[in-house]
Design a protein that fits this description.
alpha/beta; Fungal lipase-type domain-containing protein; seven-stranded mixed sheet; 9 strands
Length: about 350
């Protein structure tokens, strides 16, 4: 849940500043990070390798923006939390697709070599065999006008932090949703491939598509990156790009399979957008006990967040209860349903304003 919320903050940062640009001192990037134990150290931008024709770019300048805020790097700087975890955690969080040009890259599903400078000892798989989706690699490796690529930004900031906290136990956690989950795998592969990253390097992938072929999957795992793919059984994105006969693309890491129909709050016929929604994923993780157990009765996350994003996919019973309770909250009344996610509403101002 915590790492899903880091991704949610990446969405919030982009939606509040969709025209943010690297190095803009007049309008520094603000990340709505709710975890007080972590501090944002650097924003991250991704650049599309494709662009609009000049005449179309003039008509729709926002849609034609090639470089967009895609995430951030944060570090745990709470002594109590560092002591509790037994290490200082560096987090790299990445949002999913939000711009027209990112969508264009998503559909470039051909495989291209994942070639880079590699540590041969840490990667027994030949670099020429490992291939990744063209569009994902373009977004990861393309530099903008006067700005470095996402790859360069991540590596530079991680090395700076590792030098700053040299001598400490440090971990790196990369987390993302949808497109961000694909980029998270590419980041983890590069960090462990350089050989100077601390272990562990872990990926939490929420609703991520397939990234590369079998050789790439073997390379990521051989290098020591640990990938947990959080997958909703009814989400189509983790099954893309398709792999007819098991060819071309391969899944990476271990899978945590969730089922939106296991939630007592979501409709069993929830639509495709709900099944892929980040807040729905966090809701399902919060209620997960095991593959053969029902939804956790004492789940802590308020479903008002789910109502905000996917109200049409929440069962009418809970919509009515939430509306009734919201009216009582606005009137200064008390919530009298202890133990229910509906009771954990707080003041009306605590409802997230970020919708994705």
């Amino acid at each position: 849940v915590r790492y899903g919320e880091f991704v949610d903050a990446a969405y919030g940062a982009f939606l509040s500043q969709p025209d943010a640009t690297p190095g803009d001192l007049a309008a520094p990037v603000h990340v709505p990070l709710h975890d007080a134990a972590y501090r944002v150290t650097a924003p991250l931008f991704a650049t599309s390798s494709v662009g609009f024709p000049s005449w179309l770019a003039l008509a729709a300048p926002c849609a034609a923006q090639r470089t967009s805020l895609v995430g951030y790097v944060a570090v745990c700087d709470s002594p109590d939390e560092v002591r509790r975890m037994g290490r200082r955690d560096i987090v790299i969080a990445l949002r999913g697709t939000c711009t027209v040009l990112e969508w264009a890259e998503n559909f470039r599903a051909g495989l291209v070599p994942a070639n880079e400078a590699v540590d041969a000892a840490a990667s027994p798989v030949s670099a020429s065999d490992a291939k990744v989706e063209c569009g994902f690699r373009n977004l990861y490796k393309t530099a903008g006008n006067g700005s470095p690529s996402l790859s360069e930004m991540v590596v530079t900031e991680v090395r700076r932090l590792l030098k700053k906290y040299e001598g400490e136990e440090v971990s790196i956690t990369v987390t993302g949703h949808s497109l961000g989950a694909a980029l998270a795998v590419l980041i983890a592969d590069e960090l462990v491939g350089h050989g100077d990253a601390p272990k562990p390097v872990t990926v939490f992938s929420f609703g991520g598509p397939r990234v590369g072929n079998c050789a790439f999957a073997e390379r990521v795992e051989a290098r020591g990156a640990r990938v947990l793919r959080v997958v909703n059984a009814h989400d189509v994105v983790p099954h893309l790009p398709p792999r007819p006969g098991g060819r071309w693309y391969a899944d990476i890491g271990r899978e945590l399979r969730l089922d939106s129909r296991a939630s007592p709050y979501l409709r069993p016929d929830a639509d495709a957008a709900c099944c892929h929604d980040l807040e729905a994923y966090i809701h399902l993780v919060d209620g997960f006990l095991s593959s053969h157990c029902p939804f956790r009765a004492n789940a802590k996350r308020s479903i008002l967040r789910l109502l905000k994003n996917q109200g049409g996919n929440v069962k009418q019973l809970y919509i009515s209860k939430a509306m009734d309770m919201r009216v009582r909250l606005d009137a200064g009344g008390a919530v009298d349903m202890p133990g229910s996610p509906l009771s954990r509403l707080g003041a009306p101002s605590t409802v997230l304003e970020c919708v994705h």
